[in-house]
Design goal:
The complex is a heterodimer of chains A (126) and B (568).
Chain A (H helix, E strand, L loop, with lengths): L4 E5 L3 H14 L4 E5 L2 H9 L7 E4 L8 H10 L8 E5 L4 H10 L3 E4 L4 H11 L2
Parallel strand pairs in A: 1-2, 1-3, 3-4, 4-5
Helix pairs in contact in A: 1-5
Chain B lengths: L18 H9 L15 H12 L4 E5 L4 E4 L20 H4 L4 H14 L3 E7 L2 E3 L2 E3 L2 E10 L5 E10 L1 H23 L3 E6 L4 E5 L1 H7 L3 H4 L4 H4 L4 H14 L3 E12 L2 E15 L5 E10 L1 H64 L4 H29 L8 E4 H11 L1 H6 L3 E4 L4 E4 L1 H17 L8 E8 L2 H5 L10 E7 L32 H11 L3 E6 L5 E8 L12
Parallel strand pairs in B: 14-16
Antiparallel strand pairs in B: 1-2, 1-7, 3-6, 4-5, 6-7, 8-9, 8-12, 10-11, 11-12, 13-15, 16-17, 17-19, 18-19
Classes of the chains: A alpha/beta (126), B alpha+beta (568).
């Protein structure tokens, strides 16, 4: 098993719920921490209060957006190895290219069909 | 021969030789005249006559009471042909009747007073060459004394100056005409002489330009009369006077002070060197043409054009801003709209799964929610894509449209197979474009062709291309004739549309069919139109109902051609 500690950063409660339901549906034995703020997440990771081996990251969030979080993580020698998957409402090609350059390993537009999200998780959490 | 000794005819020794007139004088029968035969002539007459006949200068002699006429060969031409000659031996009054009023009293005066008279270039018209001619003379009448010491004759030396006077008159006439020309010219003319620039000639037109009278200017140094013009014009005058090269100034501003008031305007000026008789430049002639009204009109026009240009630029900026704001609004609105709809769709699915068994009515409601939300999502995504067209436009590169079509056919493979469709294309060009937009353009057109098919007929879609030639280019006034364009045609054998709607179909949200028959958002072709606008091209469609449709794409080979334009 590759990933055990998943972190989801998304300020939208509904999307959190949908994500967790989809994760449940995959029946993968992983722990998932959910945070609604990128800043909070960054602080906790820096302080060592939080360990994650895979991060799902929303982009459009208040105070610190996904791109800023991504940039901060990639600055840190130890943290930059953590794979980060972008899960955003956006479908903009330019945005996708931008976050890839910032070091995200995948970019997914939040699918409107539930089973598509399950399929994404299945694929990522092999 | 010794001329000092008298020859055989001792009475005529004083008129020996003397040419034609000498011979005539000798052969004349003088005994019939009041002065009698030569042997009785007084010595003074003989001496004077000798001088007359032997002179090479035109001379005439009136002798005695009756003023009997003598003249020499030199005088002879002055009498012309068919005139008074031979007048020898005749009385003065008989020979010169037409001018006797003038010369008669003169002769009497000389005879009585003994004083000579002198006339220069005097008009004395008389009969010769068959008519009365205007003849000018310079002549003197001198008294001749007889042997008794009385004045008994008048000795005339004369020279005809008609030619000289004519030339002089012509010169004067031409001078007068020149003066008139200068005086009456509507162009200001002034001639300045010497280093001090003394006004020698000036006309009223010049006077009016500088607000001075001719009298104020004439004979004075120019800059003493209009000192305010010195800083601007002295150097030019100096240059022309010293170099001898003319100078032309166009629409040159000037001002003068007239009674303390500033009078200003614009002049076209010609400075010509003014030469004296030996060709040396000793002054400058200036021609000034007042072009103030023209220049003022021109300046005003330029100002209006500049003002209009500013207004246009401002309107343009405003338009660009509101366009950008609109695109931004569409982007944000559609982006944020997606989220709730996506959730409706997702939670409906979750609800459906959670419910397990459902009644038919429940099932139907759930389906309606799902359909409505997915259609909403489709609409929002298309609006989003449309609003993003302008944003991605800085990504132009060389795009092989053949490769674009390859990818589209790949993506649509499933649909193509389902519909038993064939998509044929070859010889498509490489153009400078935004790759994503080319994919959207042809993706939309091919999707449409696969969508609007005739039932029972296998769809056949062809894409062809040709370079637009000069004649073709002319038939599309919206294109820039300096650029190279490709003309692509996407044709199908589908349901087509009435040509009436050929323009309407490119408007956003315009649909020709019910959603039930053909799904779609009405954005696809609007997007195609926008993409061609972005690329300085053009798209239009031809069709007739049931006959398939052809979409014509005119796209420039290079975008560099439009470097000054801001769309891409």
């Amino acid at each position: 098993m590759l990933y055990q500690n998943i972190l989801l950063i998304d300020d939208d409660e509904d999307d959190q719920e949908i994500f967790l339901t989809a994760l449940e549906t995959t029946r993968k034995p992983v722990r998932c921490t959910v945070l609604d703020s990128a800043r909070k997440a960054l602080n906790q990771i820096h302080r060592g209060e939080l360990e994650a081996d895979l991060i799902f990251l929303d982009l459009n969030m208040p105070l610190m957006n996904g791109q800023q979080f991504l940039a901060e993580i990639k600055k840190d020698e130890k943290l930059r190895k953590i794979p980060i998957i972008i899960l955003s409402t956006s479908s903009n090609a330019a945005t996708a290219m931008q976050v890839k350059q910032l070091g995200a390993c995948h970019f997914f537009t939040k699918p409107d069909r539930f089973e598509d999200l399950v399929a994404i998780l299945d694929e990522v959490l092999v | 021969m010794d001329l000092r000794r008298p020859k055989d005819n001792q009475f005529f020794h004083f008129i020996q030789g003397g040419g034609e007139m000498g011979a005539l004088t000798r052969s004349f029968d003088w005994s019939q005249t009041p002065i009698g035969p030569p042997e009785q002539w007084q010595q003074s007459l003989r001496t004077t006559l000798g001088i007359v006949l032997h002179s090479a200068f035109p001379m005439f002699l009136f002798w005695g009471e009756d003023l009997i006429c003598f003249y020499n060969d030199a005088f002879r031409p002055s009498l012309g042909a068919e005139g008074k000659h031979p007048a020898l031996g005749k009385k003065g009054e008989e020979v010169w009747p037409e001018i006797w009023d003038f010369i008669g009293p003169l002769l009497s005066k000389v005879m009585t007073s003994g004083e000579p008279v002198w006339f220069e270039d005097e008009l004395v018209p008389f009969f010769r060459n068959g008519r009365i001619e205007d003849i000018y003379w310079t002549f003197s009448y001198s008294p001749v004394y007889d042997d008794s010491g009385q004045v008994n004759g008048v000795f005339v030396t004369c020279t005809e100056t008609t030619q000289k006077v004519m030339i002089f008159n012509r010169l004067q006439e031409s001078e007068r005409r020149f003066q008139n020309l200068v005086a009456e010219a509507t162009v200001g003319i002034i001639v300045l002489i010497g280093k001090d620039m003394i006004v020698e000639i000036v006309n009223d037109a010049y006077g009016q330009l500088v607000g001075r009278s001719r009298e104020e200017l004439l004979g004075k140094p120019l800059f003493s009369v209009i000192p305010e013009t010195e800083p601007d014009f002295r150097n030019v005058l100096e240059e022309v006077r010293t170099t001898g090269e003319p100078i032309h100034l166009s629409e040159h501003p000037y001002f003068v002070l007239v009674n303390g008031e500033r009078k200003e305007g614009f002049l076209n000026l010609v400075y010509q060197p003014y030469r004296d008789d030996d060709g040396k430049v000793h002054g400058v002639m200036i021609l000034c043409h007042d072009v103030t009204p023209q220049v003022v009109a021109k300046l005003k026009m330029e100002e209006i054009v500049a003002e209009r240009t500013r207004e246009l630029a401002a309107a343009n900026r405003h338009l660009q801003r509101s366009n950008a704001e609109l695109a931004q609004f569409a982007y944000i609105a559609s982006h944020d709209l997606q989220e709730p709809v996506r959730k409706v769709a997702t939670f409906t699915q979750l609800l459906e799964a959670e419910l397990g068994g459902t009644t038919d009515r429940q099932r139907s409601y759930l389906d309606k929610i799902k359909n409505a939300s997915s259609r909403m999502l489709l609409l929002i995504r298309d609006v989003l894509t449309f609003s993003q067209l302008a944003r991605d436009s800085d990504l132009v590169t060389q795009v092989d449209l053949g490769v674009v079509l390859d990818n589209i056919v790949d993506d649509l493979e499933l649909l193509i197979d389902q519909k038993h469709a064939s998509v044929a294309y070859e010889g498509l060009p490489v153009v400078e474009a935004v790759p994503l937009q080319m994919a959207q353009l042809f993706g939309n057109l091919i999707s449409n062709a696969l969508k609007f098919t005739k039932s029972g007929v296998d769809p056949v879609i062809t894409v062809s291309a040709e370079k637009l030639d000069k004649a073709g280019l002319k038939s599309y006034p919206m294109l820039d004739a300096r650029c190279a364009y490709h003309h692509l045609q996407v044709s199908d054998n589908g349901i087509g549309f009435e040509q009436l709607y050929a323009e309407q179909i490119f408007e956003i949200f315009q649909r020709l069919h019910g959603k039930k028959d053909f799904e779609g958002t009405g954005i696809g072709l609007a997007m195609c139109k926008k993409i061609l606008q972005n690329h300085h091209g053009h798209i239009y469609a031809t069709s007739s109902e049931g006959q398939g449709a052809t979409f014509h794409i005119l796209i420039p080979e290079n975008q560099a051609c439009f470097a000054d334009s801001s769309t891409i």
